[in-house]
Amino acid sequence: MSSKDKIVIAFDLYGTLLSTESIAKELATHFGQEQANKIAALWRRYQLEYTWRMNSMTLYKPFSEITSAALKHALLESSVSLTDEDISKLMKAYNNLGTFPDVKPGLDAITSDPSIDAYVFSNGSDEMVSSSVNESPSLSAHASVFKGLVTVQEIEVFKPDPTVYHHLVRKVGKSFGNEDMASVWLVSGNPFDIVGARAAGINAAWVDRGAGHSGNGGWTDQLGTLASGGPTIIVSGVEEAVKGIKKFMAEDAGGSVAGHNSESVEMGPG
C-alpha cells in the first residue's frame, strides 16, 4: 500500500498521549498533593492561554519558554515560589510525562496495521517533542510507531491557527482540495484543537476521557457550533480512536468530506 492510500492519524501530544496532570507528582514533592494538583491545572491553563494570546499578537516564542512562563504564573497566582533550580527540574520532568492507560493498546494496534501512518502533531518545538516522545518511560517504547514528529517550530504559530493544520497536511504528503484530504485525521483530547482542525478541513476524533464519570464527559464546546462543527467522531481513548477512524473510513468511503459540518458520531467499544 502506498503512502498516498494510507490513513494518516496525527496524535496531539500533550493532553492526548501524555498526561499533563502527571506533572502534579513532581509538584507534590514541593507542596501538598492537593495544592500540587491545583498548580498543575493552572500551569496547563496558562500554557494554553499564552499560546492563544501569542497568536493574537502575531508573536512567537518556543513552547518550552511558554511552558516555563506559565509555570511561574501558576506559582505566583498560588502565592508560592520555587528556586530557579527547582523550576529547571520541573521543566526537565516534562520530558518524562506518563501516558494515559488507553495509549499503549492504541499504538500497539497501529504497529501491526499497514493501512495507517501515525504522526505526533504538537505545539512543541522539535527538541521538546522529540525529548518527550523518546524519554517518556511509557511512550518511548512506542516511538518507532510514528512516521514523523510534526511541530510548529518551522511556521512559528500555534494551534488552532489554520496555518498549523495546513502545515500538518503538507508534512504528511497530502494536499488540500484533493479526495485524500478525507484520510487525514487529528486525534486530540483538547476541544480547542478539535475545533481548529475541523475549521481547517481536517477530520477529528475527540478523546473524551470524562465519559462514564458522574458529572463529566460529553462535548460542551459551543465554539464548534459557531466555527466549524464539532468532532467527526467522539471516542473514549486512543485505542477506540484508531478503531473508530478505521470504521468511519470504511463505512463512509466516498461519502463524507472532511471539513463539512456534519454531526459528531459517538463510537462505542469494539
TrEMBL record:
Keyword Transcription regulation set for record: no
Keyword Magnesium: no
Xref: Pfam families: Hydrolase
GO molecular function, one term: phosphatase activity
Superkingdom of the organism of origin: Eukaryota
Alphabetically ordered keywords of this record: Hydrolase
Membrane-traversing stretches: none
Entry-linked NCBIfam families: HAD-SF-IA-v2 (TIGR01493), HAD_type_II (TIGR01428)
Family classification: Belongs to the HAD-like hydrolase superfamily. S-2-haloalkanoic acid dehalogenase family.
Entry protein name: Haloacid dehalogenase
